[in-house]
Structure formats: structure tokens, C-alpha cells
Write a structure and sequence with these properties.
heterodimer; A: mainly alpha; MetI-like fold; 2 domains; 13 helices; 76% helix; globular; disordered N terminus; disordered C terminus; B: mainly alpha; two-stranded antiparallel ribbon; 67% helix
Chain lengths: 311, 340
């Protein structure tokens, strides 16, 4: 930055000769100070954002007695790495492990189920809210926004009571229904925004060509919205995979149905399981999310640029 | 399809379904029937969502109101019906208990400081990463990790890092910062901090969960503010620079005013979510050491004591206070109807 302005100043004066030597203007000082500060801030933010994750991986690769002996170590040599923690956390309870394979299966069932069901109802819903005039359209949008902002702890009470009463507490199906009902509003909100950006003229052209409304939806709107739908699917998956409160309320008594999040939180409360093993569990919970996050980031930008080049 | 002239549609369109047929004949039959078929299609496409939301969200909330006025416990649940005996004892119990007011105060401090610091940190991050440099894409993605990672995993990482026995923070704090004893960040109600010879008593655990909240949700603010910064026209700042405005002046008078609407929206959203947040505090401290927010109290009443009436009443009070606060804020500040 500083060099750039210097170069500009050394050029032969064109219109404004000005005072020749003013290198210590307030602006120049500020630019320099904040130029340095900026890199410090970036370094600081990077450290705080990444360190907890780095620390988790580090701990999961070290044996427990070493961690207790030398808690400040910030590095583990390649020769000292052990994978015992991962073995122990993944093995089923019968083999003396913590049974995370089972938990991951439960989480995957719930998360995939939530994605499929949510999209199934949200795509037509979002299309309707975006494209079709019907009585109560604005009220419906308002309702969905309200649901999106609604405190889940307030819903926890009646749903807990209701599911206890009809005996669905402890079943993954019950949890799945709750997740869909919580997420579908957000999903519609996001998809609607995308449908709004697709030009209506494309659909009108298809309508003039004699396509039915369902045909238009299937042949025109859905393919155009596919990047947004994919991104939305990943978003829903992340919410369902990360969810904790309702899993805790509904599944706490049924250990074989615990989701990974619930399993990790429950085992963290007990003293018998070593911290390194739980850290391995923590890494296992996080990895799918990070993979999906990086995948969906690219997808999102691809979707946006694809829309832009159409003009 | 082609009549969709008012996409922005500020006034709600007249309901075509209730229109008597003779009128639509006069205005052109095709138009009326097309609008009717559109309305039918719209309603049928939205109805699955509507059913789910009404059954799983709206009705339960109405039911909560009913539960809050009854003396129901998990044990006598089967005998309770919609037409139970109503009473305001639950609310009387809440408002006369000292614990509730303390916890409401804690919730308020937690939400205000958590929201403020998250947005502040997000703003700093957005400004620092504004100008392009090699590897900025990676840094941006890394900034979002705290927000997307599973809450259980990050709270566990934090509580291990802060552990007084083998936590890395206490280890380096004692070595580098000269702490005498390990600090029990998550179980100490208050600690003494001396700065320049003056001693302050600080609520250790509460500040720790606020710091966690700032860490976890600053990416959300960062994302919104970055998007807004990208939309800000560069010409304004260039013009100000030509006129001799310094960097801080350009921020104060050009950039910040453009960001304020976004910051206002962010404040509302983050405040709502922090005010109700349960997971973070429950997982970090379990609500102990002076961090019992109202949502944790609701959970304890519901699960530990099985006191459904009290849980419902407290949840309602929480929601009502939130609604009042947000309503006041919107009335005072909001000018933009469309969010984000």
C-alpha cells in the first residue's frame, strides 16, 4: 500500500503540483498503523477460530498419560501418534468401546430423513410462496418467519409432554418429525429467495408453449433452482446432524438410539471415559460437517456465478 | 400467469376465490379462472408445510399456554386433559421465587454482552478481511468454522481447553501470564482480578460463557457484514479520500452508516437467539456457577423435576419478555421491512 502511493507520488505532476513533501499526513499514518494492525487481527482471528479444532485433533492422537503429564504440548510428533482413542470410541459397547458407530448410524438416519422429508414439502411450498398468488400468501410467509425465529425451548415443553403421552419418546421417527417441522420454515424462506431470482419470463414462455403448471415446475423451475436446492439440502443436513436439545429430550433413556451429539454429551459427563477418547468422538462428530461445509461453499458460489453469466 | 404484475404486491391481493362469478364474467372469464386455478395450486402446494407447521408448532404453543395454567407433573400426566382445573399458581410461584429473577437478570446480561461482542468481533473480522490478499478465501472459510461445527463438539473442546487439571489454557496462563493458580473458568462463580493494583471481582463463569457465545456466533455477523461491505460502492470512499478524509474518518462517516441497517438486523436476530439459547450454557456449565439462564431453568423444571406447569409458565414468561423487548426495539429503530 505504502509503496503504491510512493510510486504515484514520484510520477511527474499532472494537474495538481501540491505541496511536494507530505509523507506524514494523518491519513498516511493511519493507513500504515491499520495496515499493520490488520495483519495482527487476521492472525488473531485465525488462531481463535481454528485452535479449538486443532487442539481436539491433537488430543485425540495422544495417549492420556502423556496429556496429563504434559498438558501444554502444542505439537505431536509423527512417531508418537496413536489411534487407540479412535478405535476405542468407535467400537461397540459389547467390545468395550463407546459405540459411536451406532450413534453415527442413528444421526445419519435422522439427518438424511430430515433432508428428504424437508425438501419434499419445502420445494413445492417455496415455489408457491414465490410464484403463485393465493389467499393468505403474505400471512403464510409471516408465519414461517415467526417459526424460524421461535425459541425452541418454548416448543420443547409441549412436544416433550405430547411425545411422552403418545409413547413416541425414544423413537427416531418422533425426532425426525420434530426436526422437519422446525426446519421446513427456514428451508422455504431460503428457497423462496432463490426462486424469486429466477426470471418469470422463462416459465411464461413454457406456459405459452403449452406446458402445465406441474410440467413447468419440473422442467423449468426445479433444474434452475438445483444449486440452491443442493445447498439447502446440505444446510438442513448440518442442522439435523448438529441438533442437541430435542435429541436430549426425546432419546435420553434409549442408549441404542442416541445420536452422536447426544452420545458425546452424555459420555462427557461420566468420569470413566478418558478425555482423549472423547476428543476422538468430538473429531468424528465434526468431520462430516466440515466436509459438507467446504463442499457446499463451493456449490453456493458455483450456483451464484452460473446465475450471473446468464445475464 | 401473465397477470402477475404486482410481484412486490404491498397490499394483499383481493381473494379471487371469494369473488362471485358474475363479476369475473364481466372482467373477462379467462382471467378469473386463471387466477382461481393459480390460487388453488398455490394452496395445495403450500398445504403440506402448513399442516406440519400448524400441528407441530402452532398447536403445541397454544397447548403450552394451557399447560402453564395447570398444576401438571410428569407423574400425573395421564389424568390431565384440556379441561383441567386452571390456576395461576405457576406464575405466582415463578414471580415470587428469587431464583427466577436472578436467572432472568443473568439471561439479560448474557444476551446483551454476547450479542454485542459477537457483532463487534464480526465487524472487526469483516473489516480486516475486506481487502483481497493471497489465501483470503481460506481464511474466510476458516472464520466460519466456529459457527458450523456441532455445538456438542465445540463445547467439549472448550471445556477441555479450560480444564483446571490438564487444560492447555491454564498451563500457558500459569507459565506465560503468571497466574498463581489454575482458574476454574467454568465452575468458579466469581474471581478477583487486579489491574494496576486495583482489585475487581468478576463473574468468571458468566464471562466465560459470554466469550464462548462471542466466539461461536461472530462468524454469523462476519458473513452478513462482509456481504454488505461487498455491496458498498467504492466510489463514495474514493471521493472522500480525494477530499482528504483519513482512514478512520472514512470508516466513521462513509462505511459505518452503510453498515448500520445490517447491524440493526443482526442485533435483533442474535439477541433473539442468544436470549433463548440453551445448548451452549447447558453443555458448558450445566447452568451452574452463576450462569443459570431461564432456558436452562425451564429444562430443569421439565426434566429433573417433572414440573410441567412450572416449565411451561417460565417458557411463556421468557417468550413474552423477548417479544416485548424485540417489539420495543423494532418500534424504535426498524425502518426496513425486508430483512437481510
Amino acid at each position: 500500500m505504502a509503496t503504491q502511493t510512493d510510486v504515484e507520488r514520484r510520477r511527474p505532476p499532472t494537474a495538481d503540483p501540491g505541496p511536494p513533501r507530505r509523507t506524514w499526513t494523518r491519513d498516511a499514518v493511519e493507513t500504515r498503523v491499520f495496515g499493520v494492525l490488520r495483519w495482527l487481527v487476521i492472525a488473531f482471528l485465525l488462531v481463535i477460530a481454528i485452535f479449538p479444532f486443532y487442539y481436539s485433533v491433537l488430543l485425540s492422537l495422544r495417549p492420556l498419560d502423556q496429556v496429563v503429564q504434559d498438558p501444554g504440548a502444542l505439537w505431536v510428533g509423527p512417531s508418537e501418534i496413536i489411534l487407540d482413542s479412535y478405535r476405542s470410541v468407535l467400537a461397540s459397547a459389547a467390545e468395550g468401546g463407546q459405540g459411536f458407530i451406532q450413534f453415527m448410524r442413528n444421526s445419519a438416519i435422522v439427518a438424511f430423513g430430515t433432508v428428504v422429508l424437508t425438501l419434499l414439502v419445502a420445494i413445492p411450498g417455496a415455489y408457491a410462496v414465490s410464484r403463485l398468488q393465493f389467499f393468505g400468501r403474505r400471512q403464510v410467509s409471516g408465519l414461517f418467519l415467526a417459526v424460524y425465529l421461535f425459541p425452541s425451548i418454548l416448543l420443547a415443553v409441549p412436544l416433550f409432554v405430547f411425545f411422552t403421552r403418545i409413547g413416541l419418546r425414544g423413537s427416531l421417527i418422533g425426532l425426525l418429525i420434530v426436526y422437519v417441522s422446525q426446519i421446513v420454515a427456514v428451508s422455504i424462506y431460503m428457497l423462496r429467495n432463490y426462486f424469486d431470482t429466477i426470471p418469470v419470463s422463462l416459465e411464461e414462455a413454457a406456459a405459452i408453449d403449452g406446458a402445465s403448471r406441474l410440467g413447468i415446475m419440473r422442467r423449468i423451475s426445479l433444474p434452475l433452482a438445483l444449486p440452491a436446492i443442493m445447498a439447502n439440502a446440505l444446510f438442513v443436513f448440518m442442522i439435523a446432524w448438529n441438533e442437541f436439545l430435542f435429541a436430549l429430550l426425546f432419546l435420553i433413556d434409549a442408549r441404542d438410539r442416541w445420536t452422536v451429539s447426544l452420545g458425546l454429551s452424555q459420555l462427557a459427563g461420566s468420569i470413566e471415559v478418558p478425555a482423549t477418547v472423547l476428543m476422538a468422538g468430538s473429531v468424528i462428530v465434526t468431520v462430516p460437517i466440515i466436509v459438507i461445509f467446504f463442499a457446499s461453499e463451493r456449490l453456493l458460489t458455483e450456483g451464484l456465478t452460473a446465475g450471473a453469466e446468464k445475464g | 400467469m401473465s397477470e402477475r404484475a404486482d410481484v412486490s404486491g404491498a397490499p394483499p391481493p383481493p381473494p379471487p376465490t371469494t369473488e362471485p362469478i358474475p363479476q369475473s364474467v364481466q372482467g373477462g372469464r379467462a382471467r378469473g379462472s386463471l387466477a382461481r386455478s393459480e390460487a388453488r395450486a398455490g394452496l395445495s402446494l403450500i398445504s403440506p408445510t402448513l399442516v406440519i407447521v400448524v400441528v407441530m408448532v402452532v398447536l403445541p404453543i397454544i397447548w403450552t399456554v394451557s399447560l402453564a395454567f395447570q398444576q401438571i407433573r410428569l407423574l400425573n400426566l395421564s389424568s390431565a386433559g384440556i379441561f383441567g382445573s386452571y390456576t395461576i399458581d405457576n406464575f405466582r410461584g415463578i414471580f415470587t421465587s428469587e431464583g427466577f429473577w436472578t436467572s432472568l437478570w443473568t439471561t439479560l446480561i448474557y444476551s446483551v454482552l454476547g450479542t454485542g461482542s459477537a457483532i463487534g468481533l464480526g465487524l472487526v473480522a469483516a473489516l480486516a478481511l475486506r481487502k483481497a490478499f493471497r489465501g483470503r478465501t481460506f481464511v474466510r472459510a476458516a472464520m466460519l468454522l466456529p459457527y458450523v461445527a456441532p455445538v456438542v463438539a465445540v463445547t467439549y473442546a472448550w471445556s477441555t481447553m479450560l480444564s483446571p487439571q490438564f487444560g492447555v489454557v491454564n498451563y500457558w496462563g500459569q507459565r506465560l501470564l503468571g497466574w498463581d493458580d489454575p482458574i476454574a473458568f467454568l465452575s468458579q462463580v466469581s474471581g478477583e482480578v487486579s489491574i494496576l493494583g486495583l482489585s475487581f471481582s468478576v463473574p468468571t463463569a458468566l464471562l466465560t460463557v459470554i466469550a464462548f457465545e462471542a466466539w461461536r456466533s461472530f462468524p454469523f455477523a462476519f458473513l452478513f457484514l462482509t456481504a454488505r461491505l461487498q455491496a458498498a460502492p467504492a466510489t463514495l470512499e474514493e471521493a472522500a479520500k480525494v477530499d482528504g478524509a483519513t482512514l478512520t474518518q472514512r470508516f466513521r462517516y462513509i462505511v459505518l452508516p452503510q453498515l448500520l441497517p445490517t447491524i440493526a438486523v443482526l442485533s435483533v436476530l442474535r439477541f433473539i437467539w442468544t436470549f433463548n439459547s440453551f445448548d451452549d450454557i447447558y453443555l458448558l456449565t450445566g447452568g451452574g456457577a452463576g450462569t443459570e439462564v431461564v432456558s436452562v431453568r425451564v429444562f430443569n423444571a421439565l426434566v429433573s423435576r417433572g414440573d410441567i406447569g412450572a416449565a411451561a409458565a417460565q417458557a411463556l414468561v421468557l417468550a413474552a419478555i423477548l417479544a416485548v423487548l424485540v417489539g420495543l426495539y423494532l418500534k424504535r429503530f426498524a425502518t426496513r421491512e425486508e430483512q437481510a
